[in-house]
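INFO  loader      accepted 1 record
INFO  loader      residues=245
INFO  predictor   begin
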Amino acid sequence: MRVMTFSLRSALFLPLALAACNQSSSDQQDLNSLDAELTNGAVRDPALTSALGGQIMVDPRLAQSSNTDAVRPPTRPESGAVPPESPLKADPVDPKTLQRAPAPSNECPECKTANGALTLGALAERQKAPDAGTCAQKIGYSAGWANRLPADLPLYPGARLTEAAGADKDGCRLRVVSFASAAPMQKMLDYYYTRARAAGYSAGHSTDGRQHVLGGVRGNDAYVVYVTARAGGGSDVDMVSNAGR
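INFO  predictor   done
INFO  writer      dumping tokens
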């Protein structure tokens, strides 16, 4: 009985399998025939033959404007150069109004303190004031802090602000600024020496031969001004005060 059952099933499915094979062969022949007609231009439809064999019409004016907004590679490699700084403003301070800063001491621990401070926060944290480290941890960066320096020790007139930071939380009045000026180094020192003495601060001057530091105290208030000569003239200045407005 098992042999008979298998034979009946085979007899039933064999015609279906043959029909499927014949259908597949017929489809392939039709596809080959259509491909030959398209390749050899023997399409039976005249309109289709004309469309396939006709020339493509191109408007030169439109061709010139194709891909107008496409992103293209640059005509030459980008240089990657930093844009040049704008020129410094002319120094407006009259030197006749300034007192001469005292000669510097060659012992400059403040110079060593500033070396390696890559941010204004790091510079503030290295100061001698008792709350310097605590207040430096609360520091925030904004150009507006430059307007809140002590009234007695403001930003140098006409200076170009580079960066400013400060902290006002939990009793802190920390102000730290970095700026550049057309004023020569000696005049910058004279300016802040004159301002500090007029406001009742002490004023000590020291140098390591490259950087000059002017600093002093008035009660619990303190300031430090770091001045370095700029190549080509003028001064680069970092200033720290714990007595901001």
